[in-house]
Specification:
There is one protein chain. Strands 1-5-4-3-2 form a 5-stranded antiparallel sheet. It is of the alpha+beta class. The two termini are 41 Å apart. The longest helix has 18 residues. A hairpin with a 2-residue loop joins β3 and β4. α4 crosses α6. The protein is globular. It contains 9 helices and 5 strands, in the order ααααααβααββββα. The relative contact order is 0.11.
């Protein structure tokens, strides 16, 4: 079991015991671990420890110790990334990666969470529908209403846009269409600006169902 899976299991156990919601139980465990011996990884970073060590010369625990020792870390994501670039001389791309990983390991950022505090849910699938046909349906108000079965949507892209941006639910969905052979299309969806961690699972499920239904449209 990974460190992230172990921590999630502890959260669920606390929720079952205390009746707390996910975020409250998670924060209580973070507070408890703050004084515990050793570093507790709240969630897993996107880049492996080996890859980070090869690219930067430090593993995740070393980077976390370094950032923890810098008083300016309280300035947040932008301040930490700038410190790594300006003072530690880290490549800008890796500075962003290290900062995001630090935030996830220490609990400052949850999986799928952006630096602004919102969350993003993503799904993709190759479906049996022509890309141009689907694109036209998404830009047509009546066809789009049929595609979304009553879920209100707001078109936020011009017809010339490469991807289609829609206001959906509590966030914004960016839909990208990649034509495939035999009139098939790879549809990739990034639903951003979701306000809460619990929204991610809800909307990932929604978009999975939506993609499955596309072939029947």
């Amino acid at each position: 079991m990974s460190k992230q899976e172990s921590f999630k299991q502890r959260i669920r156990q606390r929720m079952a015991t205390t009746g707390e919601r996910y975020m409250a139980a998670r924060q209580a465990l973070i507070d408890q671990s703050a004084t515990a011996r050793g570093r507790v990884w709240v969630s897993q970073p996107e880049v492996s420890d080996d890859a980070l060590l090869t690219a930067t010369g430090r593993g995740w625990d070393d980077w976390c110790d370094l950032i923890d020792s810098w008083p300016g870390r309280v300035g947040g994501h932008t301040a930490i990334a700038a410190y790594l670039v300006d003072d530690v001389k880290v490549d800008p791309w890796w500075a962003q990666t290290v900062t995001g990983g630090y935030e996830r390991i220490t609990g400052l950022r949850l999986p799928h969470q952006r630096p602004d505090g919102t969350f993003t849910a993503s799904r993709s699938k190759t479906v049996a529908i022509d890309a141009e046909v689907l694109r036209n349906m998404l830009f047509n108000d009546d066809d789009r209403a049929d595609l979304f079965g009553g879920e209100p949507t707001e078109l936020r892209s011009k017809p010339s846009s490469k991807s289609i941006r829609l206001g959906v639910g509590p966030g914004v969905a960016l839909i990208s269409l990649e034509p495939k052979p035999d009139d098939r299309t790879r549809v990739a969806i990034e639903h951003s600006r979701l306000p809460d961690f619990d929204d991610v699972a809800e909307w990932k499920f929604y978009w999975g169902e939506w993609l499955d239904a596309l072939e029947l449209a």
